[in-house]
Amino acid sequence: MTDVLRRGRASLAFAFLVQGVAFALLVTRIPAIQDRYGVSDALLPAFLAAVPVLAGIGSVATERLVKGVPPSRVLRWSQPVVLLALLGVGAGEHMAGLAVALAVFGLAVGALDASMNMLGVSLQGAYGRSIMLSFHAAYSLGGIVGASLAWVGAHWQLALWVSYLPVVLVLMPAALIGSRWYVDQEQQEGRGKGRHRDGVSGAASERGDGTGSVSFKLLLPLCLVMTVAYIGDSTVSNWSAKYLQDVLGSSEQTATVPYNVYMVTTLLGRTIGDFGVRRFGAVVVVRAGALVAAAGFAVVAGAPGEWVGMLGFTLLGLGLCVLVPQTFAAAGRLFPEASDVAVARLNVFNYVGFLIGSPLVGVLGDVWSYRGAMLVPMVLILVALVYARSFTPEPDRYGGGHERPRTADVGRGSHGL
Fold first, then answer.
1. At 322, phi and psi to the nearest 5?
2. What is d(CA 289, CA 49) in angstroms, rounded to the nearest whole number?
3. 348 phi and psi angles, rounded to 5 deg
4. Is the Cβ–Cβ distance between 258 and 407 less than 8 Å?
5. Rounded to two decimals, what is the model's pTM?
6. How far is C-alpha 353 from the geometric centre of its chain's CA atoms?
7. Residues 258, 244: contact at Cβ < 8 Å?
8. Which of 253-257, 321-325, 355-359 has maximum average pLDDT?
9. Are 247 and 308 in contact (CB under 8 A)?
10. Helix (H, G, I), strand (E, B), or coil: what is residue 410?
11. Which of 4, 113, 250, 258 shows the smallest number of beta carbons within 10 Å?
12. Which of 119, 126, 118, 105 is nearest to 52 (CA)?
C-alpha cells in the first residue's frame, strides 16, 4: 500500500493545486470580467454571491452522490467542468452566457471542494498522521500561481479567453491523468489487512451509526469554526487592498501587496503546519492559529500606517491557514464511519462564511468605520478557542489532543507510513 498511498497523496495534492489556480484566475480578474460583460456595480454583488450559493448546493448534492459513486469519480469529472466553466467565463459574449458559466462553475466547485476534502480526510486516516495541511498548502501554491498568471494577463492587456485557454489546455489533461491514482476509502480498507468498516469503537458508534448518519449537534462546533475562518479569509480577500489604500493611505500599487503576502504566509504556514500537529496536537495548533489570527486583525485595526498594516495581514495568513484543514480533519475523526457525509456538510459552511464576511465588513465600514469593522472578525475568530476541544483526536482514549496512529477500532488503520 505504500506506493498506492503515496501516488494517491501526490495526485490529490495536484488536484488541490489546480483548483487553487482556477479559483485565483476567476477572482483576481473580476474587474476585467465586469468590463467585458458590462456588469454594473449594482448587479455585480448578485453575480458574486451566486457562486458560493450554488457551490453550497453542489456540496449538498455531493453528499448524496457519494452514497453510490466514489468521491474519486466525483472529483475526476468535476475538476474538468470547473476549468471549462472558467474558460466559458472568459470566452462568452453576453451577460446570459456569463450567468450560465458562473452557475456551472459554482455547482462544480461545490462538488470539487467536497470530494477533494473527502479524499484528503480518508488519506489522512490511512496514513495515521496529519497530512491534511499539505493538501491545502498545494491549494495556496496554486492560488499564488493563478494570481501571478492573472497579473501577466492584466499587464499585457490580454483578452480573458487568451489568458485562460493555455491554462485550461495544460491543466485539464494533467488533472485527468493524475486522477488515475486517486485512492478512495474503500480502496484503502479493501487492501488493508483486518481493517473493516464494521470494526468501529463504541464512542464512534455514538457519532455515526455506520450507515452514514451524522449528528449535526456534534458537528455544529466545527461548522462554526469553519464559518468564522472563512469570514476572516473573505475579509482579507475582499477588503485588504481597499483598507490599505483608503484607510492607511498607501499607493494603489502597494495596496495589492497584502493579499499576496497573505497567500505566501498561508502557504508557509500550511507547509509546516502538519509537523506542528504531529508534535503538539491539533488542539494546540488550532488555538495558536486563532490567537495569531485575532492578533493580526487587532494589528490591522490599529495600524498607524501601511507597513504595520501589512504586518497584520501577514499574521492573519499564519493564523487562519491552519483552521480550515484541521476542521475537515476533525470531522473525519469525529465521524470515522461517516466522514464523507460530515465533510460534505461541513464544506457548506465554507460558503456561508464567504457570504457573510465580505458584506459584513462592507456594511460596518460604511455605517461605522473600517477600522472598527476589522474588530468584528477578530472577535468571531476566537470562537475557535471556545471549541478547540472538538479537534481532539479520539478524546475517549487519548489525552492532550496529539495525533496518534489510527487502529482497527475506528476503521482506519495506519499502514506503517
1. -90, -20
2. 28
3. -60, -35
4. no
5. 0.86
6. 11
7. yes
8. 321-325
9. no
10. strand
11. 4
12. 105
